[in-house]
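Weekly modeling sync, notes
Attendees: S.R. (lead), two postdocs, one rotation student

Agenda item 3: backlog of single-chain predictions. S.R. asked that every request posted to the team notebook include the full sequence so nobody has to chase files. The rotation student volunteered to paste the first one in as an example of the format we agreed on. Action items at the bottom.

Example entry:
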Amino acid sequence: MAMAAWRFVIAALLLVPGIAVAADLEPLAPAPPPAAPSTYMPAVPDWIVTVGGEVRGVPAWPGAPTNLYGLGGFPLFNIRKPTDPPFFFGARDGFGFPLLDLGQFQAGPVGTLSWPRYSSSYAQLRGLADVNWAAQLGVYAQYWPVPWLRIRGELRQGIGGETGQSGDLYVDAIVPLGQFRLSAGPRLAVQTTAAISPYYSIGAAQAAASGLPAYSASGGVYSYGGGTQVEYFWNSQWQTHAIFEYERLTGSAADSPLVTMRGSPNQFTFGVGATYTFAMRPLW
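Predicted structure, as returned to the notebook:
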């Protein structure tokens, strides 16, 4: 019993100082709740994406008279960095995207699609050869020397109905006016013989069947002209626009009997469209 009593006394003596120290310590304060930031900064978008569509009235075939038109539609698409110049798509632009982007200068692949020409569609074409669908694939480059002026060139290779090379040069002055944006400028097109000949040459058999004289078209300056576009920005996302383009055939194309006897060297294009723009946010 004596030994048990001594053990109790020793344990008590060891615990009392610890209890005294614990009594001197203040209780731990609870951690403060996380404070919400006073303002939230939106994430910087990685890309600005524009999608839309356009409907156009175009010459019924290359060199068609000014009272015959076809109706066509196609999509519009563009993706750019937030620091790039504002999206602008000219009426004669091919569809492309920049692989090289230096801000004021961009370059990359481009493509266009040429509608077919069927001799059974119009009386003026009876006896002439059909021209199938053609795709033109190549490269483009454009430069903005100042924010309101764009210079663009395209070089493309035909595949399908025509297999020649085509080159285009466009210059557009682009002027914002409130919610409107106006643009206009000159155009120039050159084509090789393989690009022009399917539409404007007339072989001996075709001459006999159509009543037109035989003719052999050759390459060179294909056309010159100008175009304009009016855009209206309803808000930061929605935009509508209208286009008008004039193209004057020249050289071998303008001298073709199909143009001089049954068509016109004056070619007009008009259309309307709409686009929607949105930002793609970072994924992480």
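Discussion: group reviewed the output briefly. The chain has a mean pLDDT of 86.
Action items: rotation student to repeat for the remaining queue; S.R. to check formatting next week.
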